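Action item from last meeting closed. Structure (122 res):
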């Protein structure tokens, strides 16, 4: 009986190893957003938090017209509030944001434009 039990356990162990291995790469595929896509969480939020939240808080202060405290508010401000035109200071734009301190770099402005182009990924 002991030989039979040992043999059965051995079969179960071998079967477990065989059934757990696979040459398929399907389970390795992810649904992550490609690295070249700009997202609010990975790219835009830090720009807004560093440069805009001091006035565009909730509620806004210093005459800021809208809060920019959440993804949806930043998206809305970019879609309808002409955020990009307000932050660009070249080529005849009305860029006046931020009103004090350092202006956004060309790279930061481009990230916001890319975020818009990529479809406002969260």
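Sequence:
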């Amino acid at each position: 009986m002991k030989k039979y039990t040992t043999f059965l356990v051995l079969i179960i162990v071998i079967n477990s190893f065989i059934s757990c291995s696979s040459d398929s790469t399907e389970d390795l595929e992810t649904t992550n957003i490609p690295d070249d896509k700009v997202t609010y969480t990975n790219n835009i939020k830090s720009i807004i938090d560093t440069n805009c939240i001091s006035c565009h808080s909730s509620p806004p202060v210093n005459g800021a017209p809208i809060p920019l405290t959440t993804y949806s508010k930043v998206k809305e401000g970019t879609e309808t509030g002409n955020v990009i035109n307000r932050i660009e200071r070249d080529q005849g734009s009305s860029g006046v944001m931020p009103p004090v301190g350092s202006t956004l770099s060309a790279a930061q402005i481009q990230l916001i434009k890319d975020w818009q182009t990529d479809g406002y990924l969260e």
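Note appended to the action item: Helices lie at 2-20, 40-51, 71-80, 83-87, 106-117.
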